[in-house]
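Practice problem 4.
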């Protein structure tokens, strides 16, 4: 009787151990399938408010501070060479925060959590943002297409890239860190002068450091042959319109520091029509052994 009792106990322990092992295995498998969320710690300024200052006067006391300069250039949608040409500029009262708090994009977008990479350009805000699984990883200013040659809006995918190429509009224009997004129209994002307003021939102009970042961040397409695309590159969403007849929208920041803010809901609304297509291409890319990891 005792022998039977001990035998049954041993069998029970073995069954429980097997069940526990299965649960642990299932749990491990589930964890492996779930993509870890990327969280970035950003330094938030104590307050965000803006005022006008004479450019040359401001530069006399702040021209040696690289962090301040980067934020000031971004707010005024310009670059070093063109900043000095502006009579007055919009300046924040507090420079203690990271650049993400001085540009309009939300830090997280739940609707983009399944999207491994996406770049979003806002025409009205003249700014761009790069997201990884819904988390804002990089942002900066842009100068897009002028009134005569507006930048097309909608969903695009990065195609080919070149550290230096020649413009299709003018063979005297050298475009550095160029990444094409519309091959037939010759539209891409690249480094070029940012005068502080939409001035391009439909391309998306960037500061040098921003152009270099997106050049490395985005993926090129994978061609099946000379005529056909096997896998598209990184999705790029361009949305909104710019009022060319009104004052620069960022000048309104002095009265309302949130006037240009783009809500998470707005990004979700703009990206929703394209999510399925983006995820379908993402699935194809992930299955492609030659694709960039």
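Answer key:
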């Amino acid at each position: 009787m005792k022998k039977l009792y001990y035998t049954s106990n041993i069998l029970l322990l073995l069954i429980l151990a097997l069940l526990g092992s299965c649960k642990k295995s299932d749990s491990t498998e589930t964890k492996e399938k779930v993509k870890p969320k990327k969280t970035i710690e950003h330094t938030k300024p104590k307050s965000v408010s803006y005022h006008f200052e004479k450019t040359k006067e401001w530069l006399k006391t702040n021209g040696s501070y690289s962090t301040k300069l980067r934020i000031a250039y971004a707010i005024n949608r310009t670059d070093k060479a063109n900043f000095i040409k502006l009579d007055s500029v919009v300046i924040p009262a507090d420079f203690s925060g990271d650049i993400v708090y001085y540009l309009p994009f939300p830090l997280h977008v739940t609707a983009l959590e399944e999207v491994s990479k996406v770049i979003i350009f806002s025409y009205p805000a003249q700014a761009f943002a790069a997201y990884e699984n819904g988390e804002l990883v990089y942002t900066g200013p842009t100068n897009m297409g002028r009134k005569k040659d507006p930048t097309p809006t909608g969903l695009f995918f990065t195609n080919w890239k070149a550290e230096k190429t020649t413009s299709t509009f003018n063979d005297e224009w050298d475009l550095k860190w160029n990444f094409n997004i519309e091959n037939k129209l010759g539209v891409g994002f690249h480094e070029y002068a940012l005068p502080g307003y939409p001035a391009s021939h439909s391309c998306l102009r960037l500061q040098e450091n921003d152009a270099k970042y997106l050049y490395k961040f985005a993926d090129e397409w994978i061609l099946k042959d000379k005529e056909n695309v096997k896998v598209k590159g990184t999705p790029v969403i361009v949305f909104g319109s710019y009022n060319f007849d009104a004052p620069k929208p960022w000048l309104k920041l002095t009265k309302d520091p949130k006037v240009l803010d783009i809500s998470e809901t707005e990004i979700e609304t703009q990206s929703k029509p394209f999510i399925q297509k983006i995820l379908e291409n993402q699935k194809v890319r992930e299955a492609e052994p030659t694709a960039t990891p």
